[in-house]
Design goal:
With 275 residues, the chain is mainly alpha-helical. It has a domain at 48-238. It has 12 helices and 2 strands. The model is unreliable at 7-24, 242-261 and 269-273 (pLDDT under 50).
């Protein structure tokens, strides 16, 4: 009599089991260095853009939305157009990066796109006397690509282009690790939930210092973040096996395949029992 296959076992064998993926996910040290590097880049680029563009944020859309409202109230049309263009470019970058993430899941691809955008912004900054109209959307596109396509690190979802949510997550996880054992049924946050959001804040803080100093002292300030992204891209590329999709994604069956397999196994069980 043929034996029915346990669907849970089949999923683990095929690579669909989340626990199998989790065991192959990068460790905390790898995530810390990547998030720190991306936080540094985001803080650096936002600082350069803020100084170049007269106080417009490249990645902080909350601040830009407030600035948009203030400019509208003051009837400052030039300022209104610049801030609106930044928000529009950031949103367009999010749309493009969302498509890119679905078609090319390897983070090295998104990082390569970011490098191209930042270097293009540096070129425009170097050759045009008034580069704002082109530099602004290029940098906003780059930051939107980072925020959309590079937000998962192992099993954790961490935004590296904003600070507010990370500060709240850091505070919540810190409280959870300290007081969770006293609360009935409360799960104790793991170390990553505390460390990774803190790394984003630290990266932004030190990156902003570096960006401000670079604008004052370097003729080509946007070369540094491009080089940093190149190193991060190489890190992801090597970790994912020469730029291929991560093993969990390569091995995973198409969406709905697990449910179909489980249904087929159940049908075979019914037929066998009826005999």
């Amino acid at each position: 009599m043929p034996q029915a296959t346990n669907p849970a076992t089949a999923d683990r064998t095929r690579g669909d089991d989340p626990r199998a993926c989790e065991s192959r996910a990068p460790g905390l040290c790898a995530n810390v260095r990547r998030i720190l590097a991306l936080g540094l880049v985001a803080g650096y680029v936002d600082a350069v853009g803020f100084l170049d563009l007269g106080g417009v944020h490249i990645a902080a859309m909350t601040g830009d939305t407030i600035e948009l409202g203030i400019s509208a109230a003051r009837d400052d049309r030039a300022r209104l157009v610049g801030v609106a263009a930044t928000i529009a470019a950031f949103f367009a970058g999010g749309l493009a990066a969302g498509c890119l993430r679905r078609r090319a899941p390897c983070p090295a691809v998104a990082l390569t796109v970011m490098i191209g955008l930042i270097l293009s912004a540096q070129l425009v900054r170097s050759i045009r006397p008034d580069p704002v109209a082109v530099e602004l959307p290029l940098l906003a596109l780059a930051m939107a690509t980072q925020g959309q396509a590079l937000s998962r690190f192992g099993g954790a979802r961490v935004q590296t282009v904003v600070v507010t949510s990370n500060l709240l997550n850091f505070a919540d996880a810190a409280v959870g690790r300290r007081f969770a054992p006293r609360a009935a049924g409360a799960a104790r946050p793991d170390a990553a939930e505390v460390v990774l959001p803190a790394c984003v804040w630290l990266g932004h803080a030190f990156g902003a210092v570096g960006g401000a100093l670079a604008v004052m002292r370097l003729p080509l300030p946007l070369i540094a973040p491009a080089l940093a992204l190149l190193v991060v891209a190489a890190d992801f590329f090597l970790a994912d096996g020469a730029g291929s999709r991560p093993r969990c994604q390569r091995d995973a069956a198409p969406e709905g395949a697990s449910a179909t397999a489980a249904s087929a196994v159940s049908s075979r069980k019914v037929k066998l029992s009826s005999r």
